[in-house]
Specification:
- By secondary structure, this protein is mainly α.
- The protein has two domains: 31 residues; 85 residues, Photosystem II 12 kDa extrinsic protein (DNA polymerase, domain 1).
- 42% of the residues lie in helices and 5% in strands.
- The protein contains six helices and three strands, in the order αββαααβαα.
- It has a three-stranded mixed β-sheet, with no helix packed on it.
- A hairpin with a 2-residue loop joins β1 and β2.
């Protein structure tokens, strides 16, 4: 009688090759698990505290006044961090007050996408932070603790 040939569904591997393939499959599964674990964690929230005694003047009608805000206030906006917040204040101090929110695109690091992200949260005021501080310090009602402080 003739021998019936065996049919296989795939290539035949030696014991050594099968062990290597199994080891690679386990390593790939571990790598995928690690990647998922690292990238599915919630991003940490960075809290930037205001310096002691900081005024809340730059926040008007729920929007941040870009002509009087400090860097730590800019840092709380979407897509703006500490470095870019400081860069905005430096730009404003060296070039003068912003005339429109769109002028923020003149600051290195702020493009159309970042401007779209922060536009709902910012507005243009008329004073710079140093002018606002000087006006607050010169006002006797504020500096003296109110209108009844002198009495």
């Amino acid at each position: 009688m003739d021998e019936i040939p065996r049919t296989t569904s795939g290539p035949e591997f030696s014991r050594r090759e099968a062990t290597a393939i199994a080891a690679l499959a386990v390593a790939l599964a571990v790598l995928i698990g690690w990647y998922y674990r690292m990238h599915s964690r919630p991003k940490p929230v960075v809290h930037v505290p205001a310096p002691h005694g900081a005024a809340s003047e730059p926040l008007r009608r729920g929007k941040l006044d870009i002509n009087s805000a400090e860097w730590y206030q800019f840092a709380l906006l979407p897509r703006i961090g500490e470095a870019l917040g400081k860069r905005i204040v430096e730009f404003r101090d060296s070039h003068g007050p912003f005339k429109s929110v769109g002028d923020l695109t003149n600051v290195k690091g702020i493009g159309p996408g970042t401007l779209r992200a922060i536009s709902p949260y910012v507005a243009v005021g008329t004073t710079t932070s140093s002018e606002a501080h000087a006006a607050t310090a010169a006002d006797p009602a504020v500096a003296g603790g109110g209108k009844n402080a002198a009495k």
